[in-house]
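Run DUF1508 domain-containing protein through structure prediction, thanks.
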Amino acid sequence: MAGKFEVYEDKSGKFRFRLKAGNGEVVASSEAYESKSGAHKGAGAVQRAADGAEIVDV
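Sure, done. The structure for DUF1508 domain-containing protein is below.
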Protein backbone atom coordinates (compact mmCIF):
# COMPACT_ATOMS: atom_id res chain seq x y z
CA MET A 1 0.00 0.00 0.00
CA ALA A 2 1.29 3.44 -0.91
CA GLY A 3 1.73 6.25 1.57
CA LYS A 4 -0.71 9.13 1.78
CA PHE A 5 -0.99 12.73 2.90
CA GLU A 6 -3.77 13.49 5.40
CA VAL A 7 -4.99 17.06 5.85
CA TYR A 8 -6.70 17.76 9.17
CA GLU A 9 -7.79 20.55 11.50
CA ASP A 10 -5.80 20.72 14.74
CA LYS A 11 -7.07 21.64 18.21
CA SER A 12 -6.41 25.35 17.64
CA GLY A 13 -8.50 25.44 14.44
CA LYS A 14 -5.52 25.56 12.06
CA PHE A 15 -4.85 23.04 9.32
CA ARG A 16 -1.93 20.64 9.05
CA PHE A 17 -0.90 17.68 6.95
CA ARG A 18 0.88 14.51 7.88
CA LEU A 19 2.51 11.96 5.64
CA LYS A 20 1.71 8.37 6.54
CA ALA A 21 3.61 5.36 5.27
CA GLY A 22 1.75 2.39 3.82
CA ASN A 23 1.74 0.74 7.25
CA GLY A 24 -0.01 3.76 8.82
CA GLU A 25 3.05 5.16 10.59
CA VAL A 26 3.36 8.96 10.53
CA VAL A 27 6.69 9.79 8.89
CA ALA A 28 6.33 13.57 8.58
CA SER A 29 4.05 16.33 9.81
CA SER A 30 3.65 19.95 8.81
CA GLU A 31 3.52 23.37 10.31
CA ALA A 32 0.11 24.97 10.91
CA TYR A 33 -1.68 26.66 8.01
CA GLU A 34 -4.50 29.19 8.27
CA SER A 35 -6.59 27.47 5.60
CA LYS A 36 -7.27 23.96 4.40
CA SER A 37 -6.22 24.98 0.89
CA GLY A 38 -2.89 26.19 2.30
CA ALA A 39 -2.30 22.77 3.86
CA HIS A 40 -3.19 21.08 0.56
CA LYS A 41 -0.72 23.33 -1.28
CA GLY A 42 1.97 22.59 1.30
CA ALA A 43 1.46 18.84 0.97
CA GLY A 44 1.64 19.17 -2.81
CA ALA A 45 4.88 21.13 -2.57
CA VAL A 46 6.45 18.42 -0.39
CA GLN A 47 5.23 15.73 -2.77
CA ARG A 48 6.79 17.49 -5.76
CA ALA A 49 10.05 18.27 -3.94
CA ALA A 50 10.48 14.69 -2.71
CA ASP A 51 10.11 13.14 -6.17
CA GLY A 52 13.61 12.03 -7.05
CA ALA A 53 15.22 13.79 -4.06
CA GLU A 54 18.54 12.33 -3.05
CA ILE A 55 19.65 11.42 0.48
CA VAL A 56 22.71 13.38 1.60
CA ASP A 57 24.74 13.03 4.80
CA VAL A 58 25.70 16.39 6.29
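The first strand starts at residue 4 and ends at 9.
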